[in-house]
Each structure stands twice: as C-alpha cells, then as structure tokens.
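Long-time lurker, first post. I've been practising inverse folding by hand and with some scripts of my own, and I keep getting stuck on stretches where the structure tokens seem ambiguous. Below is the full token string for one chain I'm working on. Before anyone asks, I'm not after the true native sequence, just a reasonable design that respects the backbone. If someone could post their per-position residues I'd love to compare against what I wrote down in my notebook.
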C-alpha cells in the first residue's frame, strides 16, 4: 500500500514537471533563460558538465512519513537506502518488528550461530540509528536469547520512550526484564504489553503503565504481590491474559479496574484462588485444576469458558458450582475429559444461559462406549432460557479442510464404527421428534477420511 501511494505521488510530480517544461518552450526567451540560469546555479556547473538531478516529490514531511509508515519493514528500509527523504523518516519509523522472518534469516540455509549473529547486528544497527522519536510499536522475537541477552536491555532502553504504545518481547529462554525502564513516566504511554519467558518484578511504589489496556504474560515469573503492584496503577486495563505463570498462588483483581472486561487464566499450576471485584468483567476463560473462585455478589460475567484437568469432571463442576458463582451467565463453554455428570445435586439454575457448548474432546481420544451422554440432559433441566446447545466429541480443528496435512485427525476403526452407529441412531430416533422451532445440526464423520469399508 505504501509503495503504491509513493509511486502515485512520484508520477504526479513528474507529470507536473513535464507540463511546466512544455509551457516553458512556448514562453518568452527571457523566461527560458532565467529557468536555465537557475538550474545552473543549483548544480554549480555549466549545462554541458552535468544535468540537474530530480529531487523527488515535493510533499509535506508528515505525508511522506505516513507513506513510509505504510510500507513493510524491509521495504521501508530499502526506500531509506535510496532516498535521503525517506532516510530521515526511517529514523522515526513507527513500527519495528524484528524476527528471523522479517529480517530474511532462513535457518535451513545457515548455521544457528550465524543467524543469531546476523540478527543481533541488524537489530542493533537499526535501533542505534533510530532517533526514538515517533516509535509506536516494538516487537522482538528472539529465538537464540542466550546469544543476545546483553543487547536486549539496550534495545529496550532505546525503544521505551514517552510515546511508545506496544511492546512485545518473545524470547525462548529466561530473561530478567528491567522494570526500571518503565519508571519516570517512560512506560505511561504503553497500551499493549506482551512478555514471554522472563522474570517481571514490578517493585512496590512503582508508578507506570497508566495507559495499559492489554497485558499478556506467558511463562513469566511474577508473584501475586508483584502483579498486584502492577495492577495498582493500571487503571485503563481492559484485557488480562496469564499463561503458565507458575509463581502465582492467588490472583486478586481490585474493584477500581472498571474497564477490565476480559480475563484468561491458562495452566497456572500453583494457582489456588481467583478473586475479582472488577465490576465490568464480561468474559472469563479458565484452564487448570478447580480453584476457589469469587466474582462478587453483583458479578456481571456473561461469557465463561472452563476446562479442568483430566482428573476432574468439568461438567459436574459447571452444573453444581457455577450457577451460584456466575448467576448472570449467558454463554458457557465446557471442555470435559471425564465420563458423565454422575447425577449431580443442583441447587441453582442458569436462569440467563442462552448458549451452551460441551466439548468432549478428551473422551474421544480414549473413547469409551460406556460414556453416559444422557446424563448431560441435566444441563437442559437447569437452563430454562437456553437457545443453542452444541455437543461435540472431537477437536474442532481436526478436519482435513483446515489441517495442513490435508487429512483429518486419526481415529481407530472402532471409533469410526461407533460414530456411524450414533449417526444412524440420531436419524432413526431423534430427528423425527425435534420441534420445528429447534434447529438440530449433526456433524457427520468425514466421508473422505473416516468412511466405513463395506
């Protein structure tokens, strides 16, 4: 897009210059002489020595910088190599994404050490020549962190300046993130922070990240107190995602995070309790062992996705515990690895639940014909407002139409036969009894990959 705009502007300027030259041929001799003299003065030589150079489109600086910012990183760098105008805007290029792919470093054709060295040299050169002014986004995907740890601090110090909005640091080995770079107002413009495989230790009293809207921590070492220090000044936070943060024992979300609407907690194995007082939390996704969950008496949570460990019955937990914890729930997705609901004693109902999806993916992997599907009828009994009910016993991305291999996920012959028997039973005993106001969708086994040989 940026190159197309640039070419269009250059063509317009060339056309204007051509028209002026045509008009000059028909003008007075004096005007033509003045034009020639001016060209000679600019060039500093006679006409026979050197022709005047084309200086490029005469456009406002902000428009040129905008055109440059629309180019991909490699195209923007090439433009800066051939144009002094774009060389100036390159020092203020707003979006820097550094990875082996964006830098054109192919692992298959080079040694690992050579790639790490070239990656370090290139990134270091670009950031040292960047003024820091105008930089909005920095994304670092460092695959060989052990070789570049000494450089990352200086790269972040260059990038984290007032005005930076997004920082993504994706490393594959342990790195100690320097939180001091966020102090003294330098981090108050950051809206999106994504960290992986690092230690993040905000100190008590640190005043930063006041504009933070999205926080994503994956395999990050951070305690509940340190996370609390971070959240204490993140009044604009809207989305919080925590994955494999195994130092967390409890998660407490304060009431003054009024904008927080999305929370994901995924496989934080030491976590024992989540307490949220955020008044506008609408969506919560959780994977892990059952924990103490407190969402306040006036919880407005409406969308919940829960998947418990393989030893726990997610369906029983959902139907017995959640109606009282999230009374306003409208959408519920449950992924279960256990067999049946085992006749639960239900004290409350999902009075507002409209959409229910139960994914039995774990069951299909170790299929048991004894699975008590009828026990799931209990969900229908406690959901009087239910409009959509989806029951799935396989992985949604396992179809050949979406897999890179071009084939469905493998199933045993016994599982395929049972699937076809179930399909025949639905056709014979259920389809005819479904009311006209209800739409029943039954996903059949793949005719290409899971056909039955006769």
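-- Answer (accepted) --
I ran through it position by position. Result:
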């Amino acid at each position: 897009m940026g190159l197309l705009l640039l070419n269009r502007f250059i063509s317009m300027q060339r056309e204007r210059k051509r028209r002026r030259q045509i008009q000059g041929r028909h003008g007075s001799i004096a005007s033509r002489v003045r034009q020639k003299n001016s060209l000679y003065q600019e060039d500093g030589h006679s006409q026979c020595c050197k022709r005047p150079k084309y200086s490029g489109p005469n456009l406002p600086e902000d428009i040129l910088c905008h055109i440059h910012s629309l180019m991909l990183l490699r195209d923007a760098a090439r433009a800066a190599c051939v144009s002094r105008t774009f060389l100036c805007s390159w020092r203020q290029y707003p979006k820097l994404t550094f990875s082996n792919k964006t830098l054109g470093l192919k692992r298959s054709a080079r040694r690992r050490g050579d790639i790490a060295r070239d990656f370090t040299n290139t990134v270091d050169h670009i950031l040292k020549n960047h003024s820091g002014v105008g930089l909005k986004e920095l994304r670092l995907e460092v695959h060989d962190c052990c070789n570049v740890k000494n450089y990352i601090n200086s790269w972040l110090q260059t990038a984290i300046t007032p005005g930076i909005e997004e920082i993504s640091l994706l490393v594959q080995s342990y790195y100690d993130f320097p939180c001091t770079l966020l102090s003294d107002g330098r981090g108050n413009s950051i809206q999106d922070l994504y960290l992986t495989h690092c230690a993040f230790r905000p100190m008590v009293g640190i005043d930063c990240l006041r504009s933070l809207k999205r926080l994503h921590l994956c395999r990050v070492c951070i305690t509940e107190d340190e996370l609390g220090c971070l959240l204490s000044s993140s009044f604009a936070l809207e989305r919080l995602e925590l994955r494999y943060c195994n130092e967390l024992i409890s998660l407490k979300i304060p009431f003054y995070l009024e904008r927080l609407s999305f929370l994901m907690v995924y496989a934080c194995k030491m976590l024992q309790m989540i307490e949220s007082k955020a008044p506008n939390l609408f969506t919560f996704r959780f994977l892990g062992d059952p924990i103490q969950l407190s969402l306040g008496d006036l919880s407005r949570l409406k969308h919940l996705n829960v998947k418990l460990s393989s030893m726990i019955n997610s369906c029983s937990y959902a139907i017995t515990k959640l109606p009282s914890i999230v009374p306003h729930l409208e959408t519920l997705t449950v992924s279960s690895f256990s067999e049946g609901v085992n006749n639960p004693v239900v004290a409350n109902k999902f009075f507002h639940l409209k959409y229910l999806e139960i994914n039995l993916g774990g069951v299909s992997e170790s299929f048991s014909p004894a699975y008590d599907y009828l026990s799931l009828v209990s969900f229908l009994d406690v959901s009087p407002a239910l409009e959509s009910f989806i029951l799935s016993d396989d992985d949604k991305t396992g179809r050949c139409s979406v897999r890179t291999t071009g084939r469905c996920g493998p199933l045993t012959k016994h599982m395929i036969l049972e699937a076809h028997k179930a399909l025949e039973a639905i056709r014979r005993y259920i389809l005819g009894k479904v009311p006209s106001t209800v739409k029943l969708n039954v996903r059949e086994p793949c005719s290409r990959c899971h056909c039955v040989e006769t």
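A couple of notes from the structure itself: The first helix runs from residue 2 to 25. The longest strand covers residues 166-176. Happy to go over any region you disagree with.
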